[in-house]
Design a protein that fits this description.
single chain, 285 residues, Cyclophilin, 2 domains, 9-stranded antiparallel beta sheet, 3 helices, 8% helix
């Protein structure tokens, strides 16, 4: 079974649960930015939680079925159509031979996840079918005319519709302070926690770039490169924070003032440009 890409959208990538344990090779885990939405898309279809799905940034995607398939859409919320007629979000939807699935621009959130019963089948690279935009690993972004092979259809479980996860209001992310908060001037941590930070259009899967009051450093010397992780809040030379996403570098030379708790980093996948983020400190033992 095959799905043909009629319209590739702004940026549509194949993603699964990524490549854990390869940091020593200079390869981050990568994988779906919104891991919860990926799991939901697969759960609805009876797939394994980490089966490969499509991560569509900003909508504009259209897929045509060459044989009957079952699909699901989770993550960002926007218009979903089959041959122009509205289709349901968060549930298993049949797509007949020759029918066209359309994913419109999101009203809430930023990235939609499109699963198919049996999962998308492409040759894995270093154990994953994910596209790592920084390392250049995995399949290229979808292009018009691409043909996507689909695995063996799975029994569809009887589930209620999955509710949307996206938030159009301010996002609050829990953070642990450090490890390099001592590289910043007195009051910088308070400024990080008390300010409203705006997501900039320069954000991507490598990092979500924020705009707000500069976080002043107390030390001007260069920091030797240190290991970084998803959720690290690195502060660049202009004092603006960048929150690392799934395709982050495995080391970095700017000081990390805080780290977003892993369970909250999925929320960053749905933070559209212009959205406001706030950080909340969690007690450290």
């Amino acid at each position: 079974m095959t799905l043909v890409v009629d319209l590739p959208g702004l940026l549509t990538l194949l993603q699964d649960q990524g490549r854990p344990g390869l940091g020593h090779l200079g390869v981050s885990r990568s994988g779906a930015f919104d891991r919860t939405a990926l799991r939901q898309a697969n759960l609805i279809l009876g797939n394994q939680p980490g089966a490969a799905a499509l991560e569509a940034l900003g909508g504009g995607l259209a897929l045509r079925a060459e044989a009957p398939v079952i699909v699901s859409v989770t993550g960002a919320v926007g218009a979903i159509t089959i041959d122009g007629a509205p289709a349901a979000y968060g549930r298993a939807v049949p797509l007949g031979r020759g029918q066209r699935l359309g994913i419109g621009s999101p009203n809430t959130g930023l990235r939609a996840y499109i699963g198919v019963s049996g999962g998308f089948q492409v040759p894995p690279e270093l154990g994953s079918r994910s596209t790592d935009t920084l390392a250049g690993l995995g399949p290229a972004p979808l292009a018009a005319g691409d043909r996507l092979d689909v695995g063996v259809r799975q029994p569809t479980p009887d589930l209620e519709d999955v509710p949307p996860l996206g938030r159009s209001a301010e996002l609050t992310l829990a953070v642990a302070i450090g490890p390099r908060d001592d590289w910043f001037a007195a009051g910088a941590v308070d400024l990080l926690l008390e300010s409203a930070w705006q997501v900039t259009p320069a954000s991507n899967r490598v990092g979500v770039r924020l705009a707000g009051p500069p976080l002043e450093r107390s030390r001007s010397e260069e920091l030797p490169s240190e290991p970084c992780m998803r959720g690290s809040i690195q502060v660049s030379a202009d004092g603006q924070p960048v929150v690392f996403g799934p395709d982050h570098p495995v080391t970095g030379g700017y000081p990390v003032i805080a780290v977003v708790l892993d369970r909250h980093t999925d929320r960053l996948a749905q933070a559209a440009p212009g959205q406001i983020l706030r950080f909340r400190r969690v007690p450290q033992r």
